[in-house]
Write the structure tokens for this entry.
Amino acid sequence: MFSTGAGSAWLTKYVVDKYGKENTIILITDTKWEDEDNYRFMKEVADYIGIEITEKSDGRTPEDIFRKDLYFGNFGTAPCSKELKMKQTFLYIQELIEQGILPILYFGIDYKEARRAPRLAYNYKHNVDVFEDGVELRFPLIAEIDGEPVNGKQLIHNRDFLNSDKMPKVYNKEIYESLESQGATICTANPKHEIENNWGIKLPRMYSAVEEAAKDKSNMKANELLEKGVKGFSHANCGGICVKGGMGHYSVLYAVWEDRYLKMEKLEREINDAQIAKNGRRYTILSKLIPTGELDEKGKEKKKKVPYSLEEYRLEVLEGDINSNVEVEENTIACECVF
Ligand code: SF4
């Protein structure tokens, strides 16, 4: 599963080296929203490994999906990811099964983000209904057990989360303990370093977009971010306009590609207007916490999450007083498709 980012690029080589080109399909489900440099990267990775990339897409972009559904999704679900990534993958799996091939899917989620892997394994078990047990997922960048990449079941080996009615909440700690008790070998690879230094391939420019923008000393936002150690986007997908990005993600987008930020702001406004006209509901990509006036059992004021538009965030925080009374609902996690 190649998303055109660094982790999944590393993964392609790992799988080809371990199982052979003849047994490997490098799949990309293209959203048509990737940054142009990601396509350059994708091609160079394919040439380096010496294998063609299989592309599956239905030609639509996330914008097409948002306009159809009048909805951006949220942290748990993003309709663009479901329609353009997962569904395309499910359809392709179905095609392979009809050809007598039962694939194993490999994802480039790393050890630090391990808590995200069980949800993927769960989704592929429950949504690929073309055969009884779903499909097996493996995560080489997390760990290996007995020389094979850890699979969904092994992530939490003593809790049958794959068969629960609802995906339970999982923290890294539980996965780390489960892996340790199974004698797993934790992956210590550094994909970005290996790709640049050993493969000689320049990473997608999104990873260093802040550094690049900060060369212009008049770009105060980029320079502020760089001073805080932010060199670029943490995930190089959908050209930085991912609906699963949080405030931090959109502050990077504003600093490096203000035009893309404003385009997304406009799209959000149009979809919101249509949604409000339809059923009075307001959906935004970001959210913020506001006090409710009620106290919890510890005597602390309770807060609730409310919609917070990109326009409000820009005016109040990015162009306004960053320490205004907006309390950020932090969410630095992008979507399942980023791996
Ligand atoms: S990277 Fe973000 S915007 Fe792109 S398809 Fe995934 S969830 Fe949607």
In short: The chain has two domains: 6-191, 205-338.
